[in-house]
Request: fold
Amino acid sequence: MQFVEGDKWQAKSESLNFQFRQVSATRGNIYAADGSLLSTSLPFYRVVIDPVVAKEEIFNKGIDSLAYMLSSFYKDKSTDSYKRAIKDARANGKRYLILNRRQVGYQDMQAMSKWPIFRNGRNSGGVIFEKVEKRYRPFNNLANRTVGYINEDKYGAGIEYSFNEYLEGQNGKALFQRIAGGSWKPVFDAEDVKPDDGFDVLTTLDVNIQDVAESALLKQLIAKDAAFGSVIVMEVATGKIKAIANLEKNAGGRGYGENYNYAIGDQGLTEPGSTFKLLSMLALLEEGKINLNDSIETGNGTFRFYDRIMRDAKNGGYGTITIKDAFEKSSNVAISKLVEENFGHQPKKFISYIEKAGLDQPIGFQLKGEGAPYFKNPEDKYWYGTTLPWMSIGYETKLTPLHTLMFYNAVANGGKMVKPMIVQAIARGNKLEKNFETEVIRKSIASEKTIKQLQMLLQGVVDNGTAKNIHNADYKIAGKTGTAQKLIDGRYTQLYYTSFAGYFPADNPKYSAIVVIDSPKGFAAYGGDISAPVFKEIADKIYAQDLEINVKSQPKFQFADMKTDEFPFIQAGKVDELQLLCNKFGISNHYNNEGDESWVKSTVSNKSIQWKANKVEAPTVPDVSGLSLRDALYVLENKGLRVVYEGKGRVRNQSMSPGMTIYENIVIKLVLG
Reply:
């Protein structure tokens, strides 16, 4: 057989024992807008040895030390066990021995490559470090569902799944040999094809805003024992999403986790409730048949449409009020009566305004799995006489939070509707593969006059209406509350879907946001009580850290202007240095801190400076306002923060609010003055 059919069986042997197998490309990284890593691939290694390769002298000289080092490193078997396993494999001609199933990191691999026998390399020592890549997230679960995942079957969610064609790269191939036990070991071959690594994805997300959004949402979900909640924060002018948070109760009710993107997906489609009244007002104003100062009769808060009763949230109703007041107070009776009176005979006209605003179609968002809006058509068999009045207040229709936010963002943007985006570029190294620009969906969703009236109405909701609990003296918020009874098994229940959609600062909008919280427990489960406070907490923290919309001036001290009876303008610093200076100039000063904090801020009391502890050692972002640049750099960089600054003098403002969570390599911007 060897002589007659040798070539045939030799070829058969090679086809069975040698194969070109796939070599996976390194997956691309996912970055936040400031370059912070959201997801990356880290190399790990499986440590394997071909014990036959090493020469007798090298093997005998190093086997004892190698076995000892393996035992000390893995701590799972004795030195003798490792020595016996390697020697037995060598004696039996076994060419592939996995020394331990536990994978090691790059630094450990580098150290192990210097061990006895291993230091002779692959060809002379027989060591094989098989690379295995694992996905790693520096910020752990931050934006977990948005960053997403992809499994072995190439199914998943979020950015990892939606942009997999760019991230995964092009796999290569290499020659492998089958050895005893069915394992495969690589064999260098001239026909090996090197893998082409994946592209990186640069998102629009801001890790600071994401952290703020998740923290504020989680706190309210826990406080109200709610089923789930979502938050989206977006830049008004660009449509760039700065944060998406989705939290729901874990199985068994233990805590909250991010398991589904309710802000975008099918399961987030729901009746929006009163936030939809903004569209009704747009349609009414565009028709030119109402004036906001006109009166509307709401009676005792109930009104019959055919066989159904429309009710206001306030017992006893609002009586006769203006249309402006009706919107601010979110009167269901008033809005539904107005829509029925003006569109009841031509409901298609009302639907045309929904279509003009782009709310009836999917957005074509960059993430897969977007939910499609649902609106009844007057020609449908399920269109009833009560459909239009109930639709006017956000029932008998379904929208995702992203759709609602896109509409509110258009009002904030002067009527121009931009397409929400979460990925702004795809690149590899310094080479830009694809750039995503802001896309205008509608140049204008309504006339300039109508848009200005809608903006006034939304600001009135916060100043005088259902969201006056979040009225703010520092900056203005505009928005609308929403509360919708949940439809379960065809019946409306006493469970509610609460929301607040709006933008800030109202006089010069930079950010728009929506907060939805589902099935909160307790008294007063309305959008103004549940979701609006979350919006305000997020807005407050963004406002505090965004230097473009919040530049608080500090008084500047001029020594030439100081009178003899005035104190010098001392803000903050190290207490020993400040005390030394004050004592030198004969200035009374006192520090009564019982702890060991060495950083302080100052106040003046009874012609004396009082030092107050500034706890910069806490494991959160410290307050460096008032510090010199030198001191601020010392404090912040010792916490692992990267600092950029502008101006001269002392710190006037910082981009990250004191008390925020610190993540590795986060950039904080300081304004000096």
Q: What stands out?
A: The longest strand covers residues 491-504. The chain has a mean pLDDT of 86.
